[in-house]
Amino acid sequence: MTAQEIVDILKQRFPAAVADAAVEGLHPCVAVTPEAWHDVALFLRDDPRVAMNMLRCISGVDLHPEAEIDLFYELIAMRAPGGTARQEPRPPPSADIWQNGGTIAIRVRLPRDNPHVRSVADVWPTADWHEREAFDLLGVTFDGHPDPRRILCPDDWIGHPLRKDYEFPKEYDSIPAAAAGAASSE
Amino acid sequence: MSDTDIHSQREAPPGTAPAAARELRTEEMLVNMGPQHPSTHGVLRLMLRTDGELILEAIPHIGYLHRCAEKIGENVTPVQFVPMTDRLDYLTGMNNNHGFSLAVEKLCGLEVPERGHYIRVIMCELNRIASHLVSFGCYGMDIGAFTPFLYGFREREYILDLFEATCGARLTYNYLTIGGASLDLPEGFVERLAWFLDYFEPKIDEYNNLLSFNYIFIKRTANVGVISAADALAYGLTGPCLRGSGVKWDLRRCVPYEIYDRFEFDIPVGVPGGNAGIPPEVVVGDSWSRYYVRMLEMKQSVRILRQCLKQLAGGEFRAKVPRTLKLPAGEVYLEVEGVRGQLGFLVVGENKPIPRRVKIRGPSFCNLCIVPHVCRQVLLADVPAIVGSIDVVMGEVDR
To answer: Do A129 and B271 touch (CB under 8 A)?
Structure first.
């Protein structure tokens, strides 16, 4: 299934929430409003035509100085031989190779001050850690996340390092930073 | 726990009072496994909530090796970032160099010369063998077998020697770079590699006799930490962990990149016990299957390498890359079949030599997130067997 077909199905089902598709180009991508994202995610996973059964990655991109943050959800449909991806995979899928049933990236654009979006950890359990990482490094809050903690930085870390206006700390826990401020971004 | 716990199922020795034993006050205990623990492969810390020998809950704590590589990526040019990718999964530097270079080339529309493609595949497959050898050796050690470790490292040494002759480094290569490879293959490389392949291939059977089909090893790993195919997909597992669950999915075949469509190879997957020499205790998706997929993959890598040597073309090994490479506006997301799973890079350019964003999808990070789900109601001694079979490298988990 091509990215264009996926976008057409989405536009038909969610005319208000889906816009701004860029299916040509290097990174076939469709924009979804944050309010509708959880419903769209459930649809993408459960609709037998699309059946995006694996969430590969969630990447947050800070668009500073613009006041927005982009989240890219990379999805792929892995199709069991002779069936749809949603089917319970049967024991020994002997000689058959699974097929690529199509890939698409979903872009969710959030305001930079107070970015909020519903968690999809209940749709794809792997989102749990990816969302914790996006919260830790970019400060995006995922509503309804089962375990909303930092994941890579220590719990008492201040700030979100991948923000473009992040200020490098001069010390942490009274350990001085060797080259404080030397590498700060503009 | 109630009367039905594992202690009460034990037959009481004569002369003891089982009823009295049951009245003993028991309580849950928190065990801190790691970050300095030999079987956590680096600095993984697992908080284990235990009831006697039984694990009720395992909570991974990661981040001990966090260097924010992604922030470094936003402050240097892609060519300068290639050495940083070596330090993600430090056992598979070549594959990391390769994945990042491919992503940048796709964004900039660069073409790699023919010989460059072959050099890349040779290095990636060699590194896959080297990494699986470490995984094989260390997994044996996790289970309590010391010998395989020495054998695995003995063979890996030949590969590291080849790498050293090629680029001077044994672990962090910075060899495959934007546009191809940074140097040509050294003189005599092809002959040395051909010798190594002949030497190495029969050794895999030796290892299988030594460890894979060892009775104790099978008892420790078969039917332990079973991950169903549905769970593996939902938790985003890739690589040998996904294939161990019986899903025949390999990016080299399913979403071909580089020149992998020119080679013949099979995709090994976990199969139920009793089939074709597989021990009867084995269940698809258990620790033994994940381990054994790696053993079979080494054979397939040897196959690919032999075909590479036959087809290896002459000519340029690196495309002409401008000294200051401007990344066009737009983003690209590309995944390659790394050693531990699908290694992805998202690179966002903005008409400057420095990218706006570099995001790394570390396969170990995604594979590790299934640990709390699998390490539930298992025995304490099974935890190293499960975590070891997932084969994480913390440099990539923490980035």
So the answer is: no
